[in-house]
C-alpha cells in the first residue's frame, strides 16, 4: 500500500521499494544528497518514479492534482488534424458502427419508448444542451428517464435515489439503454463513439474553477462511452466529476487512439 515518507525515511529503508519522487526534485540541476544516494542504489531494489506514473500504474487513472502545468498541448492530441487520414478513418468507423448499432437495437429502442410513454404519457425523448468539442454546445438526445420537468428548472446533479427518476427510467439508466439515441449525435458529428462524457454548460463553470485541467476535456470530441464510464458511476458531485476526469486524463496520457476525437 503506498504511503508518504520523508527523505530521511526513504534513505534509511534498505529493502525493496518503489519511490515516487516529485518531478520538480528530479529536474533540479543539482539533486539533493538524499536523492543522489537513492539514484545510486541497485535499481533492482530501489526504483524511482513520479507520483503521476505511480498513480497510472496502480490506479489506472491520473488524478488531476498530480498533473503538472503545462501538460498535454492541443497539438499533441491524436486525430486533431482536420484533413488527417486517421481522423477521417475514425469518422468512417463512427458512422458505420453507429448505423449498425441503431439497426440492431431498434427493437429495444421501440420497446423502451413504449414503456416510457405508458408510464406517464409524457414525451419519450429528452433533449439537453451539452458542451461539445472545444466547448461548442450541442443538443444531446436521450431516452427520458425522469419525470417531465418545467422548462425553466435549474440544472442540478442527479443523486442516488433521486425521486425524479421514473421506474422505467431506473431500469434504462442501470442498463445504459437511455444513451442509445446518442448514436444519432454520433452520426451528426456532435459526438464520437468513444470519448469523455459531455457535461451541462451550466455546471461546468464551477468544475473548471475547482478541478485542474478540466478544460482539456473539450479538446476531445465527447463520446457515447469511454474509460471513465466503464470505471465510474454517473457524476453526482464535483468529486465524482474529478474522479471521471482522472480516468479521461489517464487514457490521454497513454495516447490510446480510440479515445480521442
Mean pLDDT: 81
Low-confidence stretches: 255-261
In angstroms, what separates the terminal alpha carbons?
Answer: 36 Å
Order of helices and strands: HEHHEHHEEHHEHEHH
Describe the sheet with the most strands.
2 strands, parallel
Total helical elements = 10
Shape field: elongated
Number of domains: 2
Would you give an account of this structure?
The longest helix is centred in the middle third of the chain and has 36 residues, at 85-120. This protein starts with 6 loop residues before the first helix and ends in an 8-residue tail after the last helix. The chain folds into two domains: 7-66, no CATH class; 74-253, no CATH class. Residues 255-261 have low confidence and may be disordered. The protein is 42% helix and 11% strand. It is an alpha/beta fold and 261 residues long.
Which terms would index this structure?
single chain, 261 residues, alpha/beta, 2 domains, two-stranded parallel sheet, two-stranded antiparallel ribbon, 10 helices, 6 strands, disordered C terminus
